[in-house]
Design brief:
Chain lengths: 348, 97
């Protein structure tokens, strides 16, 4: 085979692999909303919610419960990723990377702040207050923030098509949030905190992608991701949970009750799906670029709605369906560009 | 000082500002880090691809791997470090030795 056709073949292979990783990310991410929704009605989280609600009110109790759920989610994700690194034989690299605190690790810890307490907690809050479908679709706005930050920070190009796609996604976002809000405004009962959770998810994941890119570009993604979740576990288990316990919330007594078979099974399921959605997400970036990786990954919104419908029989509001469809359409506008534009992803 | 993360080492090898073929770098890293086998070889090569897609290395020349120096029938790539690559290296305190 001659050089030219081999070059074409290689670039094709790279692009199709990148899309495959991003697609798997979407499936895992979509599935994650199943355990994420189910866990709310399981022991000890349902008891915790009613116990705290009796003393501190329903809203505070939902947020405190969401904190404990997110902390457990971070724990099982970290365990799943440790296993993954063990299989790939990357513990040595993990040690080498963690030693390089300044150039790499500090960015992962920063990413874990935006990913964990902002995006994942926001998602759980949105699931608890409004519902899984809303939580999934609201976060679809994150590539807008990711693309804009990537453009300003490391000069990743935003083509005309990508800009158009971003516009369509924003329209979708307005439909998702606006539709629900108008409904609730007319009934006089607005779940503000749930909507805030949705916004936290979108902003948190967008910022995380751009921040993590800073440390990730000079480290192994599998290793970098694990460090990002180590960082999140430190934030939850060493800072936030003890602080809440000190204030007087019964964090530890309920945390210890989580070691029931059914609850653990659901939490582990959440850890595996979420951990691998991240692995796939980051694998796609060097092959097709952050913007496109996130764009395809966005199909998770569609998968989440389908899975939630199949398993729980909940059909979402039409505004969520329309908004979600717009977001997914926008993602496709972002990615269906000429492959010649794909050859150089960043300006040099 | 012990071994640094693999991508740091790859950047360090490129900091002489000369052009290097991917197979030269891969086999050097394999030896230094004692990472034998095809899986490790491809994993190190993927690190180079990631550095290139991150704009830190530039792909300057390709040739067909006729006799299986790296991977028979596939493309071999020659890279050189970019200005951005030098900046990121100095962020990470990587120096040419």
């Amino acid at each position: 085979m001659d050089l030219q056709s081999l070059k074409k073949q290689e670039s094709k292979r790279k692009i199709s692999k990148g899309y495959m990783w991003a697609f798997f990310c979407a499936i895992f991410w979509g599935i994650w909303y199943l355990p994420g929704t189910v866990v709310w009605v399981l022991n000890p989280f349902d008891e915790m919610q009613s116990a705290i609600a009796a003393t501190n009110g329903a809203e505070a109790s939902l947020i405190i419960t969401a904190v404990l759920i997110t902390a457990f989610n971070a724990l099982t994700v970290m365990l799943a990723l440790m296993l993954w690194n063990g299989v790939l034989g990357k513990f040595g690299e993990l040690k080498r990377t963690i030693k390089e605190f300044n150039p790499c690790s500090k960015w992962f810890f920063l990413a874990s702040i935006f990913g964990g307490p902002m995006a994942i907690l926001g998602s759980f809050i949105a699931m608890g207050f409004i519902g899984g479908a809303f939580a999934a679709v609201a976060a679809l706005l994150y590539p807008v923030i990711g693309s804009v930050l990537a453009y300003y920070w490391y000069g990743e190009k935003i083509s005309k098509r990508a800009a158009m796609g971003i516009g369509v996604i924003i329209l979708g976002g307005i439909t998702i949030f606006g539709g629900g809000l108008i409904n609730e405004l007319s009934s006089g009962n607005v779940q503000w905190i749930g909507y805030l959770g949705g916004l936290m998810a979108a902003a948190g994941w967008g910022i995380e992608g751009a921040v993590a890119g800073k440390g990730l570009d000079i480290s192994e993604p599998d290793v970098g991701l694990t460090l990002r979740f180590v960082g999140e576990n430190i934030i939850w288990w060493i800072i936030i949970v003890p602080v809440l316990a000190l204030i007087g919330y019964p964090m530890y007594s309920f945390a210890l009750q989580a070691f029931e078979p059914m609850t653990m099974l659901v939490l582990i399921f959440a850890g595996i799906t979420f951990g691998f959605c991240y692995v796939c997400w980051y694998k796609s970036f060097p092959l097709i670029g952050v913007g496109r990786g996130q764009g395809i990954g966005n199909l998770y919104g569609l998968f989440a709605i389908i899975f939630i419908f199949l398993f729980f029989g909940d059909a979402p509001e039409w505004t969520i369906l329309l908004g979600g469809a717009l977001c997914v359409a926008g993602s496709f506008v972002m990615i269906t560009e000429d492959s010649s534009e794909l050859e150089t992803l960043r300006g040099d | 000082m012990g071994l640094r993360p693999i991508k740091f080492r790859i950047l360090e090898l490129f900091l002489d500002e000369k052009e290097h073929w991917n197979y030269e770098i891969v086999s050097k890293v394999q030896k230094e880090y004692d990472m034998q086998g095809n899986f490790q070889r491809d994993s190190i090569n993927f690190d180079i691809i990631e550095l290139a897609s991150g704009g830190m290395l530039k792909d300057v020349e390709q040739k067909v791997d006729e006799d299986g120096t790296h991977k028979k029938g596939f493309l071999l790539h020659k890279y050189v470090i970019t200005d951005f690559g030098k900046t990121r290296s100095s962020d990470a305190c990587i120096r040419y030795v």
